[in-house]
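Example 9 (inverse folding). The structure is encoded as follows.
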């Protein structure tokens, strides 16, 4: 049985678009247009895509916060619409915008409050809080007795994750858990997510950070305008795009665009400074390209500041698949 199974999921938002001060007109947004995927226990699945692609909408439907308009979603075999209570028992949710914490309560008191709300018994709750505050280093950061309103963003994110883990649920839905965090907090959360997957938890994870997705996710779903446009492990996905590498040469001098436009190379010229330009050339033979371009540049008096060859990144994969979906 899958931990999460989504079959042809659809969601339409019906809103009104402001037109002037008093007028508005109805607007229909097709946020999800038939999204199917599954997540197994012990697996981190990344849901990646541009702003407005439908990631948060998907997470909200899986977590029973939002009703779908079509299709079905099952959490450990339970339907998110007709068996929402069973679903809620099995999931831990972290949404980007952390709401529901009380500013005038300490970190500890906030989680105590949720534990009571979840009907956890006192002794289990104390032990669990002890464990989670240590695990997320909230004790070391002063999260036990500081008021929530005084928390830094990193502490708030950690407390959000602690709340998602409170009932030790088998399924975690994490919407941009590292957004805005400093490197130590982000590293902590990523390694924790990997450990949780090792314990057998199923994790649906969204991020805009491709480097992070590559480190954390076993599998990635690229979603664009409500449709999944590509799916696979980070390395599978990179193998599926044309083997174009990026040759980046930084030169000092005038704009070198005219030199490159004579040649049939896919390229971009970025101005880094007044007389500093970065040439970004897409090619499947970067050494050959380097050998043909360097003499042209040096003979015209350009000074080469640096060069590097980059393998395709997840970002290239995403751009490739979203362009094809247009
Ligand atoms: N409550 C709402 N009412 C109307 N439209 C909405 C609502 N929530 C989301 N949308 C629209 O649905 C689409 C999908 O939004 P969603 O928040 O799921 O995207 P996302 O992939 O999470 O984006 P981001 O990366 O910016 O978080 C967008 O076009 C968005 O404007
Ligand atoms: Mg979102």
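The amino acid assigned to each position is listed next.
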């Amino acid at each position: 049985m899958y931990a999460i199974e989504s079959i042809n999921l659809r969601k339409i938002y019906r809103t009104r678009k402001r037109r002037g001060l008093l007028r508005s007109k109805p607007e229909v947004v097709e946020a999800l247009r038939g999204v199917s995927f599954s997540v197994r226990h012990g697996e981190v699945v990344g849901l990646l895509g541009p702003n407005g692609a439908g990631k948060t909408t998907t997470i909200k439907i899986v977590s029973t916060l939002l009703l779908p308009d079509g299709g079905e979603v099952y959490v450990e075999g339970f339907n998110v619409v007709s068996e929402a209570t069973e679903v809620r028992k099995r999931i831990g949710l972290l949404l980007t915008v952390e709401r529901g914490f009380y500013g005038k309560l300490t970190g500890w008191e906030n989680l105590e409050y949720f534990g009571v709300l979840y009907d956890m018994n006192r002794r289990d709750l104390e032990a669990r809080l002890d464990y989670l505050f240590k695990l997320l280093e909230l004790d070391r950061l002063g999260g036990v007795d500081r008021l929530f309103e005084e928390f830094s963003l990193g502490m708030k994110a950690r407390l959000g994750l602690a709340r998602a883990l409170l009932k030790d649920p088998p399924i975690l839905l994490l919407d941009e858990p590292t957004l805005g965090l400093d490197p130590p907090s982000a590293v902590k959360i990523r390694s924790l997510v990997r450990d949780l997957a090792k314990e057998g938890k199923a994790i649906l994870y969204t991020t805009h950070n491709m480097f992070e997705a590559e480190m954390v996710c076993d599998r990635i779903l690229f979603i664009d305008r409500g449709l999944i446009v590509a799916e696979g492990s980070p390395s599978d996905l990179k193998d599926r795009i044309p083997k174009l590498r990026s040759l980046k040469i930084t030169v000092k001098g005038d704009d070198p665009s005219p030199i490159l436009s004579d040649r049939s190379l896919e390229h971009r010229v970025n101005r880094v400074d007044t007389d500093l330009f970065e040439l970004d050339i897409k090619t499947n033979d970067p050494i050959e390209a380097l050998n043909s371009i360097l003499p042209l540049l040096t003979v015209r008096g350009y000074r080469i500041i640096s060069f590097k060859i980059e393998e395709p990144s997840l970002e290239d994969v995403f751009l490739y698949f979203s362009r094809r979906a247009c």
